Predict the structure.
Amino acid sequence: MNGTNVSSRVLERLSDEWDGLTPEAQKAARYVLENPREVGISSVREMAEAAQVKPNTLVRMARQVGFEGYEDFREPFREAIRSGAAGFPDRARWLQDVGKRGQLGALYADSVRAVLDNIEETFAGIDPAALQAAAEAIWNCRQVFVLGVGVNHANARNFTYLASTGMTRFHAIPRAGNSAIDDLAFADGQDVLIAMTCHPYRGEVVQAIEVAREQGLTVVGISDSRASPVIRGADHGFVVASDGPQFFPSSVSIIALLETLLSFVIAVSSDEIVARVESFHRRRHALGIYSEDPR
């Protein structure tokens, strides 16, 4: 049961119990019903001031509809924010509220739990055979274009950098000064596009996938929902979990998936890759790029 459903049920209960509320509690309830997003991100004092009631009125209102106190009443709304039901600004305000109330220990626990849950949920939903199929398409193609914008541009560049230690046909796009569709201008059915974006989906990524399909590229899509246009437009689609207490989608599962995908590519590749990786790192040692352990 997600936070959105729980908070909606609280609002329904508040509405159902309306006639049993005192006039002042009805005044507070009216503000809550009209501004439910404020409940999870505002303190009891801020809510009381906005509703033009005393803080104790909100406490009595919560108890009259079956909660032990206002914090219990408020928790489902905060859970909705933690689970991603609120927008980025609201989640940022909630994080500041957590800090003001000295609950950073709880935020730390929420963050760690979200990371572990996202990894577990992502890989529980992926068939290794599907990863192998994508890896084989990548290994057998002419060029691989790895598309991400915003924070995902860093993820695309990291994937391309790791791949470059043994392979030369990987390109992170968009390149500086270019658009993604320009970078795909001469790509065709011999090539692969790996594209990633989470909700709210970036338009340039969706557009690039449409162009890639028109040009015959094989598309590997990474996104946070089966309903995502990235997944629906992909030949090989992988859904990642990106929830967390922060105000932006988490990249942890995307990074883990990309690293795993690259491992699969190496696993299905030819023996020459091992020699290339070895040569790449031997050269780095020879040129003094690595700082040697003085022991």
